[in-house]
Specification:
The chain is α+β, with helices and mostly antiparallel strands. It contains 19 helices and 18 strands. The strands form 7 sheets. The protein has a 4-stranded antiparallel beta sheet.
């Protein structure tokens, strides 16, 4: 939205944004005072629509220094007031979610999907990587831990039983990896009375005391205990290049995290330069309302919680679809030659579709020469529908790590999405008007039938009138319907605080579960501070289910892939 539109849109008290001659803003004109406004061409009338205002005010005196200060202050005031109004208002996505909950989701359908998956006990990726490093340093050692069949080993001690991080069945040695935040490390958390971010009823001192009590109980029960604190491991990582390389390349050390299956839309360049001539044309095709189509009838969505499978998986049959329906955390080997790759991965926060893991991480620009499976296979979380498409294109499933499976009877199509979105889709089509001027009645009926066959909505010919504002509103609601389910709780929190509020600033950074991101002077009397929650401490946002949105974007990518196949890889320029 343009800055000039904000006062009316938010009903601001500040007067509407005025006009300023942008092209007149040059050092040669600083300090100038004119008896009239500068010539109209300095206002860029072609873009700004100022002709009527200019004719009414052209004889007004123009003081450059005063006008530019007034204009800039006015811009800042409008933007500030609009931001305050926006922050205090509900968002479209929040409003839609409210309507869905109140009017359309009447029965228990949407499940709670933990942001970090269902881990059982909270073994972090960091701790598991260190256990694997211990094994790497001791060839032949096979520790029992969360990633092995049966999960963590449980030991009987004098006080109680414990599920331990690692256990060596050959020697009976126990390995415990104490993450500083979860165990109240006195070196890292100096404020011992600070409450834990995971249990507000426990202080960091109490966490540490319990940890020491547990360690003593294990030793007193006859076990040899090896304790490693996170801060000590990180210090070793800083010094040991081999260990650091091992940690970076250790792919599977956590449970299935559903947000990792949320890849978003596909954009990809196939050719850098194309010339149209008498024989070849450049064509552009676009899907109309693709995400609403996927929500209403292009994808199926699960009801309730999945069956979580971590071992005893069904046998992998080469070339055959998966026997599961949902999400799969797995290793998969792309074919060496696939004109249109299927599976997405993220590298440095960028979405790519590689055929070789090592080439993608090293950003190799020359032809791939890797032949080892260990160099080429991909590890990730994908929807099973997309994995099945990949298998049909020559990908090979190598190994399951974890699967979220819903039985076929637990899936629905349309449902609350269709009830809410169909009237909006009807509104969008009607407010788009007829596709051609002066259409015959026969052509109009054919157009109505096409829309009905495609989107299952019945348009009223009397209501088909071009209305850009109504169409824009309907489109905004349609495209905002699915997004709230994918709300990301890992957001940076930023505040502007007076420097005199030293205690509040210290408390902002001292709260457990967050990492500091920014501390900057802001003028003479304020500081800009920001923090971001650690991934391990994330709490799922209220009434969200990232699985729904992973399936939505997956369905859209599959639909796009089908179109790309019809066009042919040799003809694709960009998608």
């Amino acid at each position: 939205m343009k800055l000039s539109q904000l006062p009316a849109a938010f009903d601001l008290a500040t007067e509407s944004k005025g006009h300023f001659p942008y092209m007149f803003n040059h050092p040669d004109n600083y300090g100038k005072v004119l008896s009239t406004l500068p010539p109209i061409e300095f206002y860029e009338p072609k873009y700004m629509g100022v002709k009527q205002w200019y004719e009414e005010n052209r004889e007004t005196e123009f003081n450059f220094d005063e006008e530019i200060v007034r204009y800039c202050k006015n811009d800042v005031q409008i933007l500030s007031e609009a931001l305050v109004k926006f922050i205090e208002s509900t968002t479209i996505a929040s409003y839609i979610m409210f309507v869905l909950k109140q009017e359309h989701i009447k029965t228990p359908i949407v499940a709670y999907a933990p942001e970090n998956g269902w881990p059982g006990r909270k073994n972090s990726s960091f701790a598991l990587k260190f256990l694997l490093w211990i094994e790497h340093q001791n060839p032949g050692m096979a520790l029992k831990h969360k990633l092995r069949a049966g999960g963590e080993h449980v030991i009987e001690c004098k006080r109680r039983t414990y599920a331990v991080d690692g256990y060596d069945p050959e020697t009976g040695h126990v390995y415990e990896i104490h993450e500083c935040m979860y165990h109240g490390c006195p070196k890292c958390y100096l404020n011992r009375e600070q409450t834990s971010p995971h249990n507000k009823n426990q202080t960091m001192a109490e966490l540490y005391d319990y940890t020491i009590l547990k360690d003593d109980d294990i030793r007193d029960s006859g076990f040899t205990l090896h304790v490693h604190w996170e801060c000590d491991i990180r210090e070793e990582l800083r010094k040991n290049a081999e260990m650091k390389h091992f940690f970076i390349n250790c792919n599977y050390t956590h449970q299935l995290r559903p947000r990792e299956a949320m890849y978003g839309g596909r954009t990809q360049q196939f050719k850098s330069f194309v010339v149209a001539d008498e024989e070849y044309t450049i064509e552009n095709y676009d899907y109309c309302s693709l995400y609403p189509f996927i929500n209403i009838r292009g994808a199926k969505y699960p009801i309730g919680a999945p069956l979580r499978i971590t071992d005893y998986f069904d046998e992998i049959v080469p070339g055959q679809p998966l026997p599961y329906h949902g999400l799969a955390f797995c290793d998969i080997l792309p074919p060496k030659n696939c004109p249109i790759p299927v599976l997405p991965v993220r590298v440095d926060s960028k979405l790519i579709f590689p055929l070789c893991k090592k080439c993608s991480t090293s950003k190799r620009k020359t032809p791939c020469k890797h032949t080892k499976v260990t160099d080429r296979y991909l590890t990730g979380v994908w929807c099973t529908d997309e994995i099945n498409l990949a298998i049909s294109e020559g990908y090979q499933l190598l190994k399951y790590h974890e699967v979220w499976d819903w039985p076929e009877k637990s899936w629905f199509q349309g449902g609350f999405y269709e009830k809410f979105m169909s009237p909006l889709l009807k509104m969008k089509h009607e407010s788009s008007g007829w596709p051609e001027e002066g259409m015959s009645e026969e052509k109009k009926q054919a157009h109505i039938k096409t829309i009905h066959d495609t989107d299952h909505v019945k348009m009223d010919p009397e209501n088909v009138k071009k209305n850009p504002a109504l169409r824009s509103l309907a489109k905004l609601f349609l495209n905002s319907t699915w997004g709230k389910f994918a709300q990301n709780p890992c957001e940076t929190e930023t505040k502007l605080l007076p420097t005199s509020h030293g205690l509040k600033i210290a408390q902002f950074f001292d709260e457990q579960g967050y990492e500091p991101k920014c501390f900057k002077d802001w003028g003479e009397n304020h500081v800009l501070v920001s923090r971001r929650p650690f991934k391990e401490s994330l709490q799922t946002a209220c009434f969200t289910d990232i699985v729904y949105e992973a399936l939505t974007t997956c369905g859209a990518r599959i639909k796009l892939y089908e179109a790309m196949k019809r066009v042919g890889a040799e003809n694709l320029i960009y998608c």
